[in-house]
Amino acid sequence: MRRVLIAPQLGDLPRQLPGGFVHSLSGQTMGTTWTVRYVAVDDVSGDQVAEAIQAALDQVNEEMSTWLERSAISQFNQAAAGSWHHLTHGFATVLKKAIEIAALTDGTFDPTIGPLVNIWGFGPDSYHAASQRAQPPPIADILLNLARCGWQKLQFNQSNQTLLQTGSVYLDFSGIAKGYGVDQVVVALRTLGLAHFLVEVGGELYGSGIKPDGHPWWVALERPQQESGLDENVVALHGMAIATSGDYRRYFEHHGKRYAHTIDPHTGFPVEHAPVSVTVLHTSCMEADALATALTVMGLRRGLAYANTHGIAALFIVNESGSLSAHDSPALAEMLE
């Protein structure tokens, strides 16, 4: 069964059809791929568009990838205790939003969770990839690294965009940077004068305008592969972003127990009984990305309650007794045609 979702922003769709054809570009970034479909405008070549997209994503990578030793975030994580660091505008923007969402979600999203991500085998400082781990890390190591985490420990001076390295802080923006990258591509495209496009980076999306045939950018909400028993949800994107947190993507198993990559900042362990996936629709892909992670940590009951209270359009897919089921937040249900 197909369910059609109509975003509120569709009422603002342009009435005049764009001329030309839909062009498609793709590339690699942040350990994943990107794809952009767009309607060209006069005096802007495909090479210009491709260069602007890649430059925007490379900038995010250079600032926020913990997998790059030379990146700004890696340099901060390795810096000496007591040192203050002046952040770039992009770095400061993401950190500010990360702290804001951490506060609003009671720390279920936490940008300081990097030490735990690493010891569980999902980060750049891991000795083995998660799929190759023989067993979970020792409890003593988990507790030791849990003590290093906590967004409240961050000393960030917003007025001059400086951040203190206390000696134990290890930032990890993996739950928000990809969404920010999508937003930055949107800025780059609009700077070139493009108004009709669909941006996708590693499964996170943002759509704007319409196609030459007058139709909006229709996309299907992500669901576990080869799962045909669930409804297919398609949404028309205009001025809206989609981000999905899925625990079926990265995990390892030990003695029959599955350990997924989403870590609970309160316990130091991968989230137990986490939703299979959480998808969030929002006007900002950066916020959708972080909220999807937070709602995954909260789980179905708390996550739905939070989404209801804060008017978040979210789709939860959960495994209930071996069978997958989907649950809409009220804000998402209102978008059904």
SSE inventory with pairings:
Elements: E1 2-6, E2 22-29, E3 32-39, H1 46-64, H2 72-77, E4 83-86, H3 89-104, H4 114-119, H5 139-146, E5 156-157, E6 162-165, H6 177-191, E7 197-201, E8 204-208, E9 217-220, E10 232-237, E11 240-246, E12 251-254, E13 257-260, E14 277-282, H7 285-310, E15 313-320, E16 323-328, H8 330-333
Parallel strand pairs: 1-10
Antiparallel strand pairs: 2-3, 3-7, 4-6, 5-6, 7-8, 8-11, 9-10, 11-14, 12-13, 14-15, 15-16
Task: Please tell me about this protein's structure.
The chain is an alpha+beta fold and 337 residues long. It has a single domain, classed as ApbE-like domains (T-fold). Helix content is 30%, strand content 26%. It has 8 helices and 16 strands. The strands form 4 sheets. The protein has an 8-stranded antiparallel beta sheet. A 3-stranded mixed beta sheet has the order 1-10-9, with no helix packed on it. The radius of gyration is 20 Å and the shape is globular. The two termini are 14 Å apart. Residues 127-132 have low confidence and may be disordered.
